[in-house]
Amino acid sequence: xxxxxxxxxxxxxxxxxxxxxxxxxxxxxxxxxxxxxxxxxxxxxxxxxxxxxxxxxxxxxxxxxxxxxxxxxxxxxxxxxxxxxxxxxxxxxxxxxxxxxxxxxxxxxxxxxxxxxxxxxxxxxxxxxxxxxxxxxxxxxxxxxxxxxxxxxxxxxxxxxxxxxxxxxxxxxxxxxxxxxxxxxxxxxxxxxxxxxxxxxxxxxxxxxxxxxxxxxxxxxxxxxxxxxxxxxxxxxxxxxxxxxx
Amino acid sequence: xxxxxxxxxxxxxxxxxxxxxxxxxxxxxxxxxxxxxxxxxxxxxxxxxxxxxxxxxxxxxxxxxxxxxxxxxxxxxxxxxxxxxxxxxxxxxxxxxxxxxxxxxxxxxxxxxxxxxxxxxxxxxxxxxxxxxxxxxxxxxxxxxxxxxxxxxxxxxxxxxxxxxxxxxxxxxxxxxxxxxxxxxxxxxxxxxxxxxxxxxxxxxxxxxxxxxxxxxxxxxxxxxxxxxxxxxxxxxxxxxxxxxxxxxxxxxxxxxxxxxxxxxxxxxxxxxxxxxxxxxxxxxxxxxxxxxxxxxxxxxxxxxxxxxxxxxxxxxxxxxxxxxxxxxxxxxxxxxxxxxxxxxx
Lengths: 246, 346
Prior knowledge:
The complex is a heterodimer.
Chain A: E1 2-13, E2 16-27, E3 31-36, H1 42-50, E4 55-64, E5 67-68, H2 74-79, E6 82-85, E7 92-96, H3 97-111, H4 119-132, H5 138-141, E8 143-144, H6 150-164, E9 168-172, H7 180-192, E10 199-204, E11 217-222, E12 225-230, H8 233-241
Parallel strand pairs in A: 3-10, 3-11, 6-9, 9-10
Antiparallel strand pairs in A: 1-2, 1-4, 4-5, 7-8, 11-12
Chain B: H1 2-5, H2 10-13, E1 18-19, E2 34-39, E3 42-44, E4 52-61, H3 70-73, E5 76-84, E6 92-98, E7 103-114, E8 118-127, E9 131-142, E10 145-153, E11 159-169, E12 172-179, E13 184-193, E14 199-208, E15 213-222, E16 228-237, E17 242-251, E18 259-268, E19 274-283, E20 289-297, H4 301-308, H5 314-330, H6 336-345
Parallel strand pairs in B: 1-7, 2-6, 5-7, 6-8, 7-9, 8-10, 9-11, 10-12, 11-13, 12-14, 13-15, 14-16, 15-17, 16-18, 17-19, 18-20
Antiparallel strand pairs in B: 2-3, 4-5
């Protein structure tokens, strides 16, 4: 069943055309990897799907669960199940991380017409996850990402993701700033969500993240569009010949 | 003070007022505090608490750090000494109730804290109809630590001018004020650090809407060595509001090894609100640490987007970010009961 359908998408950022005629279909349960050189439009695609303020859509369409995604505010997209793990998660001094987690859970539940979870119920959910993922509970007491190491920030993104249980997960350069051990931990966390119903779009330069989160499809982006699609064999070829061949 | 002259409040002081003093109201006490009720500038207190001695001083000629019209200077008012003589085991709240409409009310309190006292004092101004309130507060701290906080519950037609004279001799004075209501509100600080190891911290949150005007004018004089001061004000400005911060840290010749910092931060929620920042250091000794700075900006769009991407509406995100902006300042209130009061009522 189709989850996300992008058809002939054209996007500019600050008066510069970045995406020019991109097509992509993601079905439920699929893991897609999007690779390409710096500036090819990978992160702009993620921003377009999530509704970032800097993006101007010039043409084409995006449907999500057969609904026009481009008509939705960013928070509606999020509450309908689109989650982006940011390449550089924002540091928000003054906002307690635990309070933030409780708020996003109950806002989503309210959107879905469900009752709020009590503080006790949320704490249990969070503590189960932090224990399972071996996350230090200290990050709950601190301000959101404030003064966090690169690994802690990505772990915090993972915690938010697991709590919100999204249907479409966009991982924007999730491996940046992570050592192998941290990447392995994040990869294991993401894989917990792969139940055949959720889908993932991995945006990356490098193969190493794909050692931990295995894609069904690999796409190469260049000049604002997808120029090649296939299986993991594309990545092996890229490792040998680089992006210059494309 | 030239810039201060640009802060126009002539419409408020040129009005004709009837001066009001004293009165009576049926009011509730706050259970977590020692309560002192003050009605139109006159305390309703008969030395019920053994830690606090109140004394009527005299009727005195009106004085003010803020220039007002002649009508005020012809005024005589009742001055009271509040002396904290023993360590209180709960915070003290002074609740100033103001009645009447189109009136001016002035009060003058000397608040003294000596001999190893550590006290937490909250002052509230409560008014529901338009008037001009002028409060003179003269703090004298000797070998003691006083935390003073203030919050107002006043209508948008009332103006409030606060003159704060503070003298610290081997001790610490810390203050957190919130100003979020009132037509014109001004806090005028004149703080003297008279002996070594004296410190003063003045922090404030200013939230303005509509055409509100607010000024924080804060002068701290470091008169002796090893004295410390900190001024930090955070502004959230909307509508056509106008805020002014005029900070002056004066470090005298003999005040070596002293430190001073001044910070003003502003978030502008409207393109039509204005702020004038003027942090100044006036240093006469080369062996000191002194910093000052001011920032003015809007809420960060990337912060907003990050939180919206987690499902929060723009309105909720703004509320959370503005609370976060204020939190640092409110967390400086040492006393848990007073801090909770600010979080609940702020």
